[in-house]
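Example for tutorial group B:
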């Protein structure tokens, strides 16, 4: 009897939970830390960027909700953008972020969670710095523009493809005045 009374309440909570801003808790602290360090800012807010179905259908890979955010200071000044996603590794996938400055230039790429026993070298600052400064005009090729990593071939290639795809999407988002 008590379960039947709670059911409508639980359904409402579940629906509201799916409509709200949600970066998974295990990623939220890491995202905040990277924004703080990269942009040297303590107080900021993240606003999800809504992408219409028409524009999303033009993208190389659709951007689902809770993936692309505008970063603003308390004064509502634009700081930049953050994109959070997953990319495949050999047997699993890893979480990463891309921070863009307000001019849509990659300020930082970061592997947030890596779930494989091997290939974690793609998370090294030295390797990831290769992506800094890239713009929507860049087209990256693994082993040509981006240095390969022995023992992390699949993950390193996957990260390169993920960032390349995002840069292509960035061009489309910019042309359609989403960013």
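The residue assignment follows.
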């Amino acid at each position: 009897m008590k379960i039947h009374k709670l059911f409508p309440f639980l359904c409402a909570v579940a629906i509201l939970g799916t409509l709200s801003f949600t970066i998974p808790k295990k990623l939220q602290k890491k995202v905040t830390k990277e924004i703080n360090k990269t942009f040297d800012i303590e107080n900021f807010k993240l606003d999800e960027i809504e992408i219409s179905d028409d524009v999303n259908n033009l993208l190389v890979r659709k951007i689902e909700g809770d993936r692309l955010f505008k970063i603003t200071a308390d004064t509502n000044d634009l700081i930049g953008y953050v994109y959070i996603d997953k990319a495949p590794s050999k047997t699993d996938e890893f979480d990463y972020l891309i921070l863009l400055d307000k001019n849509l230039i990659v300020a930082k790429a970061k592997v947030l969670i890596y779930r494989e026993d091997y290939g974690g070298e793609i998370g090294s600052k030295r390797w990831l710095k290769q992506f800094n400064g890239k713009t929507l005009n860049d087209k990256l090729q693994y082993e040509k523009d981006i240095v390969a990593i022995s023992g992390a071939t699949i993950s390193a290639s996957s990260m390169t493809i993920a960032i390349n795809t995002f840069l292509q999407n960035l061009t489309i988002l910019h042309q359609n005045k989403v960013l």
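The first strand starts at residue 44 and ends at 48. Compare this with the pattern of hydrophobic and polar residues in the output above.
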